[in-house]
Amino acid sequence: MLASRGATIQRFEHYLFGPKPIWHLDNFKYILLHVGTNNLYLNTADEYGKLMERLLSNIFAKYEDCIVLLTSIMPRPADAPNTRPVARMYNLELIKIADPRVGPQTSKDFIIPGVNVFYVNLAKCFVDSSGKVIRNMFTRDDGLHLSRQGNTTMKYKLISVFNNVKTGNLQCYIGKLPSKMVHEYTK
After folding, report:
1. Count of domains observed in the chain
2. What is the spatial distance between Cα 65 and Cα 93, in angstroms, rounded to a whole number?
3. Which one of 94, 99, 133, 182 is CB 3.0 to 4.6 Å from 77, fit for a cystine?
4. Is position 102 within any domain?
5. Residue 128 burial (C-beta neighbours within 10 Å; 0-12, 13-18, 19+)
6. What residues form DSSP beta bridges with 127?
7. What is the average pLDDT across 140-147?
């Protein structure tokens, strides 16, 4: 596992493809890209989508047989009213990357099968049924990073996702899959 807390997409690119790469993914079959909210105010959603597409293009050019899981931008209790609309737009860009046929009306909890790229909406694990952020899933000191309980929740959801992807269960999902999506992928 390679991780860099606080890294932007550009920093990931530098770690992987800079003049002296520090990360080498030669032995990795699965790559989980969990980019946080550091790009939220640096780029528009469209710019973010283009940066992510460029990163993925570079990854697949070098590691063509890998499978990439793109996780959704997480909610932030510290400033949820301000960041939630921006995060939704960013998440729609990730969904479009995983499957360009998908439009904004399908931004629910599901995994979208793409061409070796999957979108995983983990944000739903951190909000209650009314959509309010579950505060104890995040640290008390900043409200931005996951607490121990939040990390445990994310860990078990990701294990479930990996197991489904590894076994070829591309219809797997977290939560209820909208009937419109069931129709879309059973054609």
Report:
1. 1
2. 23
3. 133
4. yes
5. exposed
6. 133
7. 84
Q: Is 138 helix (H, G, I), strand (E, B) or coil?
A: strand
Integer angstrom CA distances of residue 102 from 14, 55, 84, 180: 30, 21, 20, 11
Burial of 111 (0-12, 13-18, 19+ CB in 10 A): buried
User: Could you tell me if residue 18 is inside a domain?
Assistant: no
149 falls in which pLDDT band (50, 70, 90)?
very high
Q: Render pLDDT for 49-91 as a digit per residue (tens, 0 to 9).
A: 888 888 888 888 888 888 888 888 887 787 777 777 888 888 8
* Parent domain of 121: 24-180
pTM: 0.76
The answer to whether residue 64 is domain-embedded is yes
139: number of Cβ within 10 Å: 16
Whether 116 is in a domain gets the answer yes
Contact 85, 94 (CB under 8 A): no
**Burial of 101 per CB tally in 10 Å (0-12, 13-18, 19+):** exposed
Mean pLDDT over the full length of the chain: 75
How would residue 169 be classed by pLDDT, with cut points 50, 70 and 90?
low
State the CB neighbour count (10 A cutoff) for residue 41. Answer: 9
Percent helix, percent strand, percent coil in the chain, to nearest 5: 45, 10, 45
What CATH number is given to the structural domain containing 96? 3.40.50.1110
**Which tokens go with 172?**
């797997």
